[in-house]
Amino acid sequence: MAEVQMTSSSPKSTGCKVFKSSSQCTRKIDTIATIAIIAIIAIIIAIIAIIAIIAIIAIIAIIAIIAIIAIIAIIAIIAALPRSERP
C-alpha cells in the first residue's frame, strides 16, 4: 500500500522503473489491480443498495396508495348503503 502511494506521489516514477526486480513490479501491478477491483465492487454494491432502497420505498408507496384507495372505496361503499343496512 505504501509503495503504491510513494510511486504515485512522485512525478518522475512511471510504473515499474522504481523497482529493481520484475517480481516486485508484478506485485505492485497486482496490488493496484486488487485495489481497483475492490473499488469497483464497492461501487457496484453501493449502486445495488441505492436501487434496493428506492425499490423498497416504491413498494411501500404502492402499498400505501392501494391501502388509501381501499379505505376510500370502503367508505364510499358504506356511504352508498341505505341507513338501515349501515354497520
Structural features:
single chain, 87 residues, mainly alpha, rod-shaped, disordered N terminus, BQ5605_C004g03041 protein
Q: How would you characterize this protein structure?
A:
Helix content is 77%, strand content 0%. It has 87 residues and is mainly α. The protein has one domain. 0% of the residues are buried. The model is unreliable at 1-14 (pLDDT under 50). The chain crosses the membrane at residues 32-53, 59-81.
Quick synopsis:
Keywords: Membrane, Transmembrane, Transmembrane helix. The protein has 87 residues and is mostly helical. 77% of the residues lie in helices and 0% in strands.
Topology of helices and strands:
Blueprint lengths: L1 H8 L12 H59 L7
Arithmetic mean pLDDT: 79
Question: What Rg is obtained from the alpha carbons, in whole angstroms?
Answer: 31 Å
Number of strands: 0
The portion of residues assigned to helices is over 70%
Structural domain tally:
1
Structural class: mainly alpha
Write the H/E string, N to C. Answer: HH
